[in-house]
Amino acid sequence: MEQKTKKNDILLIGVILVLALAAYVGVSIFQDATTHNAEALVLIDGEEYGRFPLDTDVVERIELPDGSYNVLVIEEGKADVTEASCPDGICVNHRAVSRQKQSITCLPNKLVVEIRNGEESDVDAITN
């Protein structure tokens, strides 16, 4: 009887591992499909600076006429401001964005990075 229990346990563990692997592959495929058309729209003082697809890795240094700058990095389907000349650095400390209507804003440099055509976010609002 004990031998049969061990076989059943091994079979159960195998089934769980196969299901977990299938779920992982499914989520990966879904994420790739939702970021395929997604792009980061960069606005400076309300004017469009550029559009950068999230499925292509890019490092863009955005120079402003007054000498200030922001560095936009798009990597692994996410947009992030990794460096900026602004004194407060709030945009640099902001987490990377990848979902529809998420944005990173740098008020001193009048820069906005907004995600368009991405997956809908399941969070309506975040407060600190």
Write up what this structure looks like.
The model has no long low-confidence stretch (mean pLDDT 86). This protein has two helices and seven strands. It folds into two domains: 1-35; 38-116, mini-chromosome maintenance (MCM) complex, domain 2, CATH 2.60.320.10. It is elongated. The termini are far apart. The chain has 128 residues and is an alpha+beta fold. The chain has helices spanning 2-35, 90-93, and strands spanning 39-44, 47-53, 58-63, 69-75, 78-84, 103-106, 111-116. The chain has a four-stranded antiparallel β-sheet with strand order 2-1-7-6, with no helix packed on it.
What is the percent of helical residues? 25-40%
Which segments are poorly predicted (pLDDT under 50) over 5 or more consecutive residues?
Answer: none
Beta fraction of the residues?
25-35%
The major sheet is characterized as:
4 strands, antiparallel
Key phrases:
128 residues, alpha+beta, mini-chromosome maintenance (MCM) complex, domain 2, 2 domains, 2 helices, 7 strands
Give the secondary structure arrangement, pairings included.
Layout: H1 2-35, E1 39-44, E2 47-53, E3 58-63, E4 69-75, E5 78-84, H2 90-93, E6 103-106, E7 111-116
Antiparallel strand pairs: 1-2, 1-7, 3-4, 4-5, 6-7
Briefly say what this structure is.
The chain contains 2 helices and 7 strands. The protein is of the alpha+beta class and 128 residues long.
